[in-house]
Structures are given as C-alpha cells and as structure tokens.
Automatic annotation (TrEMBL):
<feature type="domain" description="CUB">
    <location>
        <begin position="209"/>
        <end position="335"/>
    </location>
</feature>
<dbReference type="InterPro" id="IPR000859">
    <property type="entry name" value="CUB_dom"/>
</dbReference>
<dbReference type="InterPro" id="IPR053207">
    <property type="entry name" value="Non-NMDA_GluR_Accessory"/>
</dbReference>
<dbReference type="InterPro" id="IPR035914">
    <property type="entry name" value="Sperma_CUB_dom_sf"/>
</dbReference>
<protein>
    <recommendedName>
        <fullName>CUB domain-containing protein</fullName>
    </recommendedName>
</protein>
<feature type="domain" description="CUB">
    <location>
        <begin position="68"/>
        <end position="187"/>
    </location>
</feature>
<feature type="region of interest" description="Disordered">
    <location>
        <begin position="341"/>
        <end position="368"/>
    </location>
</feature>
<dbReference type="Pfam" id="PF00431">
    <property type="entry name" value="CUB"/>
</dbReference>
<dbReference type="GO" id="GO:0005886">
    <property type="term" value="C:plasma membrane"/>
</dbReference>
<keyword id="KW-1015">Disulfide bond</keyword>
C-alpha cells in the first residue's frame, strides 16, 4: 500500500490512441477504469502484462529514501548498465534521480548512452533534463546538460569520479518519452591527461583527450601526442583546437613546427589507413567537415615540415591505429596576421616582398 501511495500518477487516457508502454517505479501498478455509460462492450481496451526482474534497475548501492539514486564503486563493479527508472516505458513526472560513480585512483569513468529520449523543452533544457558533472557532487564542473533525443553521446570524467542527475518536472501534460539507457566503465587504460598539462592546453571536459589552446598574444608552446615521450596507446582519437586572437585590434595565425614525428604506416599500405595526424588549416570544428583536411601525415615520407594556418584557428586530429609509434612533438607559435598581400617574411615580421618574376602588377595595403 505504501508503494502505491508513493507511486507517481501515470496519466489519464481516453480516445483511440493507446498509452505508451509503462513500467512501474515500484513493485506494484494500478489501472482504474471509469465510464459514465450504463453498458460498454468488452473490446474497449486490452493489453499484456509481465513481471520483470528489477536487477537491471539496481545500478549500484541504492541511496536511502529514494527509488532511483545509486552509488557505483569501480572496485566492485567495473562495467555495467545505467537506465532511467522506468525504461523503456514512459518515465513519470516529478522525478529526481542521481547516479554517483566513484573509481579507484588512476581510473577514469566512461559513460555511453545507447538510447536517449527525453522531452525537449528548448536548447537550455528547462524541463526534463540529464546533467553530468565532472566530480562527486553537483557543485563540480558541468560536463553537459542534455534533453531531447541524443545520438552517439559518449562522455569521460577527467578524474576518477562522475555524477549524473535526472530530473523531471511536475506538470499537467503527459510525456511519452522513454528515458535513457547506457553503459558505464571504470578503467585505468583511458588516456592520461598529463600530456595536456605539459603545455598551456586545457582539457575539453567530457572528452577522452581533446584539448584547446588559446593565444596569450603572440605566445608559443608545445603540443604532444598522448603519453609522450613514451609510445602512444592504440585505438584512440584526440583533437587539438589551437585558437589565435581575433578581434578588432588583433588578428593572429598559427604556425606549427614539428620537432619529432613517428606515426608508422603499415608496410603493405600506401595511405594512412592505420594511424595518422590530420591538420585543418582553416580550423574546421564541425564533425561533418573532418573529411576536408589539408594535410594527412603518417610514415616516414610524409615527415611534416612547418605548417601555417589560413586564419586564427588550426585544428589537428590524431588517430592511433593498431600500430604503436613514438608519437609527435610540435611547437606552436601565434603570429600577428597583417592581412597584406605579398610574400611574407619567414620570421613573421611586418615585411613583404613583391617580385616581378611572379607578378607584373598587384595590390598592397597597410596592416589591418
């Protein structure tokens, strides 16, 4: 009786459209049928029921006095499934759930949502929402706020803990959304983020090893492959977003000088089908533009030289295949971009050369 009292109201239905599948939040569910007719025929509605094993919904150690909050310890459960409390049935209103993942020292947490279907109330998710925090509580940095339908949503913690909340609003309208289902994993083998800390890079929260590097006005530094100076691990993808200054007073470009490069190419292959480093000189950031690279580097014959971006942004994508290599080390330099046509001086100074052997006429202008 107490479980029925605490169970959320599942909705009121009439007309020709049947309710979506329902799964009880507790061990009981009640259906009530009301009619103002003196006589009804037996074909008004019908359905099927089944009793499910609730072990799938026991994500970890349950928190007291809540139906859907759990703590998961990496030392006792390295992998498992995370599901919303009534998945794949329509989830109830006025629900507050939390999932705390605590790994061992040196571990990181990987969360992959295989199915994600929440009510979409707008880009800031003001209604039903899943929030992921990069730590043990909701006071730590937010990795992301998610609602609606999400595809290929994979998230990593920066350290050994991750905190997930799932909240639905108390409102009149019913939602047919089914919630979420995913998998989690604790592992020491995810990329260590030390190689980002070696320079002025900043880890992009939620990614395994992506980083961004922001200019401090004509600053310079180094970028490394993961695990450098030791061989990198196989089957990882890391992205580097190098951003120069761009405003009314400043415009920069990025120069990249490689000091070490060792990404082996398979002996029987002529292309970079295993590991590679792709460079985008126009700073492509959208996922669908990653096939429009300017340089693809691997092996000995593609030993990179100096590359310069076309604007203030440069992007690199490093993908390791089956073969291990020593990786790479490169120096980045943010240079002032003068926007002057002509042959620029190699030292980056405001000097430009015009030769009649290349063009008989042209234009020149003051620095922007």
């Amino acid at each position: 009786a107490a479980e029925l009292i605490n169970s959320p109201f599942g909705g009121r239905y009439c007309g020709p459209i049947p309710p979506r599948r329902r799964i009880s939040l507790y061990r009981a569910i009640t259906l009530a049928f009301y009619t103002d007719k003196n006589y009804t025929h037996p074909g008004l509605f019908s359905g099927r029921y089944a009793f499910l094993n609730d072990s799938e919904y026991q994500i970890g150690t349950p928190a007291p006095n809540t139906p859907c909050s759990f703590t998961v310890l990496g030392k006792t459960k390295r992998t498992g499934t995370i599901v919303s409390p009534t998945y794949p049935g329509a989830y109830p209103k006025d629900l507050s759930c939390s999932y705390l993942f605590i790994g061992e020292p040196g571990q990181r947490v990987r969360l992959e949502f295989r199915d994600f279907d929440l009510f979409f109330g707008g880009p800031h998710c003001p209604f039903d929402v899943v929030k992921v925090f990069d730590g043990q509580t909701n006071d730590t940095a937010v990795i992301g706020t998610y609602c609606g339908q999400q595809r290929n949503l994979v998230l990593y913690s920066s350290e050994s803990t991750l905190f997930v909340t799932f909240d639905t609003l108390q409102r009149t309208a019913n939602t047919p959304n089914r919630g979420f289902k995913g998998i989690f994993e604790f592992s020491e083998s995810f990329v260590k983020l030390d190689f980002i800390a070696k320079n002025d890079g900043e880890h992009i929260r939620g990614s395994e090893c992506d980083q961004k590097i922001l200019s401090k006005k004509e600053s310079s530094g180094f970028v490394f492959s993961p695990n450098y100076p030791f061989p990198y691990m196989p089957k990882i993808v890391c992205r580097y977003f190098v951003y120069g200054m761009q405003d009314s007073q400043h415009l920069e470009r990025v120069r990249l000088d490689f000091m070490k490069f060792n990404i082996p190419k398979p002996k029987d292959k002529s292309d970079c089908s295993d590991g590679y480093l792709k460079i985008y000189l126009k700073g492509q950031e959208a996922t669908d533009s990653y096939d429009k690279f300017d340089h693809e580097l691997c092996g000995e014959e593609s030993q990179p030289h100096q590359v310069v971006s076309d604007g203030p942004r440069l992007v690199m994508v490093f993908s390791s295949g089956e073969l291990q290599g020593g990786g790479f080390k490169a120096k980045y330099t943010f240079e002032t971009e003068y926007r002057i046509p002509g042959t620029a001086a190699p030292d980056g100074s405001c000097s430009f050369t015009y030769r009649s052997s290349s063009r008989k006429k042209g234009e020149f202008n003051s620095p922007r």
